Amino acid sequence: MDFNMWSDHAPVRLTLEIADTGIQTFNSSDDNIFHSTYRWDPDKITEMKTSLISHMDTMSSNVEQMVCTEQSIENTVIKLTETLNTVFKPFCEKRYCIKRNATNIKSNKNSLPNKPWFDDRCKELYYIYHCNIRRFNRNRNNLNRQILIESKKNYKSYENRVKRNYLRYEGNQIDYWRKHNPKQFFDVFKKGKKNTNCNLKSSDFYNHFKNLTAETSSNITDDVEADNQECVYNELDASITQEEGMEASKRKLRLGHHRSKNRLVPSYGTVAGLLTAVSITFIFLHTPIHIFKLKVIIETITGKYKVASVTDLTIGNVFQVMYYLNSSVNFLVYYICGNNFRRVFKEVLCKNISCCVCPGEDDEDRLSDAGTTELTIILEKSDAGSEKSR
User: Fold this and answer.
1) Which of 128, 181, 195, 220 could make an S-S bridge to 177, C-beta 3.0–4.6 Å?
2) Among 97, 113, 108, 91, residue whose Cα is nearest residue 45
3) pLDDT of 121 strictly over 50
4) DSSP codes of every residue in 356-371
5) Cα separation of the two ends of the chain
6) Residue 93 in contact with residue 36, Cβ under 8 Å?
7) In Å, what is the CA distance from 247 to each residue of 242, 250, 302, 376, 386?
8) Residue 18 pLDDT > 60
């Protein structure tokens, strides 16, 4: 333990620490750029001590003139800071002269600008965070590590908060423009104008095509001029014959295009699947009803129970309600798809038992239209036109 730790007459011990990267300034002139940095120079400790001792009287007088008020303390701190800068700056400053026409000028400014939400407070926290990183890398201990974690937490939390506020403000602004100023709203999403400038001069363009036209006109022969006529192809201008129409009609019938008018009619598989689903639902819901009814009848006849139990009656009532619900669903399905079902059912019966049931007028029209195609209609129109011409 130091013997003068608690003594009022112990001298003050002043310790100064300067970071590796000091303040950087740029002083520009007409010809050169002067880059000034401030770094601690251990070789000039003696000169710095001598300069500090010579300014001790000024520092002591500033402290003696201080009054116990906030303004007085701030003024004293400012004066002490100016005195220390006067003492140490001449020994720590290093200036570099860079020619303005140099091609390898290095600048500490980032190539990309800062984000809009990156304000002065963000820059300050960012600077503190990186200083703590350098301090921790120089001296890795628990204290520096805790300081680094705390500074990183403060920087990230503040940056995320101001970023959220900025994005919320921008979103509200865009939403306001969408309702009240559509032109400004669409300008936000409009891409930048493309550069339409061209390096090709108009005179070069004109001379190139002028020479090209002159060369082409000199190479034209009489044969080329004779062939420069309107193109007429007899094969394309010939009328469609009846054999070609019948061949195309057979091909379309073979590929199944005759159902073009009735494509909305469901196929047999669709109706069969629907009927299968309804039948399975009927079996699952109606079988338990009959089982419980038979059980109650048998037990009543044998005399085991004079009156059916409450459980059996409840289960029977539940399945009876389900039966009525299923009946209503089946009625609705038949009402919606009944027309299609009856149509398919009639087609099946007409194929198998044609003597019992005959197709209706709608079915006859649909079956008669099965062989009608676009080409046959065209051929009929052409035949009608030829008869009129005759």
Assistant:
1) 181
2) 91
3) yes
4) T----HHHHHHHHGGG
5) 135
6) yes
7) 9, 5, 79, 10, 21
8) no
Pick the closest to residue 93 from 52, 53, 48, 55 (CA basis): 48
- Work out the average pLDDT over 121-129: 92
**What does the alpha-carbon distance between residue 177 and residue 181 come to, in Å, rounded to a whole number?**
4
Judging by beta carbons within 10 Å of its beta carbon (0-12, 13-18, 19+), is residue 126 exposed, middle or buried?
middle
Per-residue pLDDT averaged across 29-33, rounded? 54
At 26, is the secondary structure helix, strand, or coil?
strand
Contacts of 354 (CB under 8 A, 6+ apart): none
- What pLDDT, on a 0 to 100 scale, did the predictor assign at position 370? 43
The burial class, CB within 10 Å (0-12 / 13-18 / 19+), for 62 is: middle
Question: Side chain identity at 221, as an amino acid letter?
Answer: T
- Whole-angstrom Cα distance, residue 258 to residue 340? 19
pLDDT band at 321 (very low <50, low <70, confident <90, very high): confident
Which H or E element spans position 12? none
Residue 20: per-residue pLDDT: 46
- pLDDT score, position 323: 73
pLDDT tens per residue across span 248-289:
888 777 766 445 545 544 455 556 666 677 677 777 766 777
Q: Which residue has the higher pLDDT, 295 or 106?
A: 295
Return the closest-CA partner of residue 127 out of 151, 149, 110, 159.
Answer: 151
3-state secondary structure of 167: helix
* CA gap 366, 257 in Å, rounded: 14
Cα separation, 2 vs 276, in Å, equals: 101
pLDDT at 29: 46
CB 40 within 8 A of CB 92: yes
